[in-house]
User: Fold this.
Amino acid sequence: MRNKSVDARHHRLIYLLSVAQRRVQRWMAARPENAVTPAQAGLLFILGRQDGVLMGEAGAALDLGPAGISGLVDRTEAAKLIERRTDREDGRAWRIWLTPKGRTALARAKAGAAEVNAALTDGFTAAEIDIVARWLTSIQDKFPRPSETRSSETRSSETRHSDQGADQ
Assistant:
């Protein structure tokens, strides 16, 4: 179901989305009661749902590549909010766990997120917010991470080459 309306092209959605994301992140980071960055809060939220996740799983959930999640884990561990432990079954893999200080920071981050979400949704109906949430979620499917695109292109290319080989 595509929006073929001419008006849809004049909303400057790319610009509005970009500015909105920067403003919300700056506003959150500038709040004195925020002991963690928005990125660290995201990692704490993941660990609050499932403590002891693999670093790669946390990176995927946060839409970060290996270097991004590694740096985030380093900074969050240096802040003593999490700890890293080797996986029991695969000594090459790392799992991350909340510390007591991380649990306290998570509780504060949840309260802060509730306040931000209240501000973001103020003045809109639940139905309008449902549409916005659906639209924002759809972006992830419409614009996959480059590594996901490359993987599917590689699979398609390998399939084409293997099909070509069968014809020869």
Q: What stands out?
A: The first strand starts at residue 53 and ends at 54. The chain has a mean pLDDT of 84. Strands lie at 53-54, 82-86, 94-98.
